[in-house]
Amino acid sequence: MKRKLLIVLTACACLAMFSGIVLAHHGVAGYDLTKTITLHGTVAKFDWSNPHVVVFVDAKNDSGEMQQWTIEFAAPIHMVRAGWTKNAMKAGDEITIDTHPSRNGASVGISSTITFILKVVVNGQALPGRSD
Amino acid sequence: MRFQTAVCAVAFLGALGFAPSLPAQTASNSEEAKNQKAGLTSGGKPDLSGLWDPDFRGPEGMRLNTWDSSDPFAAHPERAPMTPWAAEKFKDVRPPFGAMQTFDNTNDPVQRYCDPPGIPRIYMYPWTIQFIQTPTTVYILYEYTKVWRAVAMNSEHSKDPDSTWMGESVGKYEGDTLVIDTIGFNDKTWLDQTGHPHSEALHVIERFRHLDHERLELSVTIDDPKAYTKTFSATKLYKLSPGPVGETLCAYSEMKDFQEKVVDKTQTAPAK
Predict the structure, then answer these.
(1) In-domain check, residue A83
(2) CATH number of the domain bearing residue A107
(3) Which residues contact residue B21 at a Cβ distance below 8 angstroms, ignoring those fewer than 6 apart?
């Protein structure tokens, strides 16, 4: 009985993974969804507007050089549905943020679409997340 | 052991089939309760009130990017039953979804110009819809781009309608279903998220009905003899939504800003 359950669960998991790759969302054509990186830095700008909320983060890269990252989120109303507001962060705040990076190696990433919000911690407080 | 099992089985079957009958209800009460559950008014007409979210999750909730249900994942958008006219238009599209998806120099009219998505492409965006039903007109309000349509109930189409972004709609109730018939389109919109074209001969039939109180099914049929060699259709689900509804206009200045500050950076090799 347990073995059958395991087989079914594995099959479901495989199907879910496969579906995720085939059913690409808006905006992810340019991002590598299989990769997640974590940035530690400062909020340079918080752009709470359509079509997508955008967070600009100043963070040091592995070589210690300051880089500015452009991180895409879902539309404002979709962030509101998940519990965010336009006051979620502001320029100068300390931020730790997970993101799926751009495929071309540019310092651009996506941290939220309609179906997920990756981990975002601002001044030590985690903002509401969402998983598929 | 066998005897005990048999007793259990009989008891269980008995519980199923021979439950004590419920106290008698008046015909109108039970009819009302049944109608409420099914999303019908007391007059038997569909009650479409509420806020409706397109269902993106679960086996039925996959994101719909094409109305051609023979290619549900839009893995082969070129296989839609296009006429040579449509196939010619289709070969140059640079759409946001499907096998040909790209954000490099997009020519998606919504992304490039904030053009209205139109009917029925607007249903493919993950935003809410709501209905206002009056005896003569059903209004549909779309959160995405904040547009609305007026569907003239129990009317005929005009003889020579204008060519407009969202067409001319007439509607009627068929049992539990709101049926909307739309013609009079311009050909400036895409049919869907994969860039399929349509002509001014486009004729769209939408059918909305409750599957239960909390779920609405939308069925869309595409009939465009200039662009497609046969009709095709697909369905999608809507769920009762807790909201809230926000403002998601497509403002060209915001779209342009986003393209330049975010999207373009993902398309070109970064400066070293």
Answers:
(1) yes
(2) 2.40.50.140
(3) none
